[in-house]
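Pasting as-is:
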Amino acid sequence: MSRRICVVFVALIAVAQTGADWSQFRGPDNAGRSLETAVPPTEWSVGAEGPGRGNVRWKAEVPARGVSGPIVVGDRVIVTGAGGPRQDRLHVACYSAADGRTLWHRQFWATGRTFCHPTSSVAANTPASDGRRVFAFFSSNDLVCLDLEGNLLWYRGLTLEHPDAANDVGMAASPLIVGERVIVQVESKGASFAAALDAATGETRWQTPRKPQMNWTSPTIFRGATGEPLVLLQSPHQLTAHDPATGEVVWTYEAVCGEIASAATDGDLIFLPSNGLTALRCPAGSRNWEKVWQEPALAAGNASPVVKDGRVYVVNRAGAVACGDAKTGKVLWRMRVKGPFWATPAAVGDRLYFVNAEGVAQVVRTTDAGGEILAVNKFDEPVLGSPAVADGALYVRGEKHLWKIAQP
């Protein structure tokens, strides 16, 4: 079997395993969108009163504070947390998607640095799953691999190998799964590197140095027109595309890039937070990029761009939303929602679900002509992690609780 066929085959297996799952940061393809037709409710109330109160299917306590988002794997919802005076107790918890029961809860001691900004958490990185295993990465650079029953398969304390890989406000890059590789990006003013670990064993398959600099973006998968994947690593001064099997740099785009909002992809286009938003095309069979457009008015804040149905959406920290044409970069409309935002919104159907840092959820209906706020719903606590969508349900992780929002 040729390498190209083998890679595509592995990618198809991954898609079949995840199905409608929200298996990693910003969903199955890192674009912040769900391809389902079932749309979560517009209104809900987490209290005893209010419209749509029956749409809160359940509410569960999370074991420790975290700003990571939840992931959904089949009938399970998984979150991470960090507790203790030094946040050196790492938590991975799994809940029943049906009723919110805790199915298992595992705890580990951090082996790396746990100092971080009070706004953030050692549990800042959203976990990922390949449908068989869960990979939980933490700001301490500890990477935990568990099966879906919570059994420990392997554990890597990457700071033990890279003692200077840390910064004063914490790390945040979420892991990315490509075939049988788990990609991690660790960038700070100390040791900086990206690595691929074997998903089954935790062994390092490749490692490449990165420029020492503060960075909180996450690796992104780019499948392009052929389906053969590339790994995109975004840093403050460049975007690099890598062969996931070897780590080889396929191409480099030099520019000032965002340090928090991560690139999104759609077809053969890459939407990079750079000078507002920059669209790059990597044509089929090409080992290089083409700049398609650049639009300063489509500047993202902390939240990453969301791409769906030929439109790209950005929101800045204060709540200014802009919608652009994905092919041309033309700004189609603008609106304002209440900020501030850390969480990337989730797109499903013609809806965008924005949840701000104060726990205010705003549901926006999108059309070619503009955006309309359909409802404003309040959670009882801060929300910094990005929401997940699966099987017509919205999952939101707050400072102390996890909610499932769905029709009765």
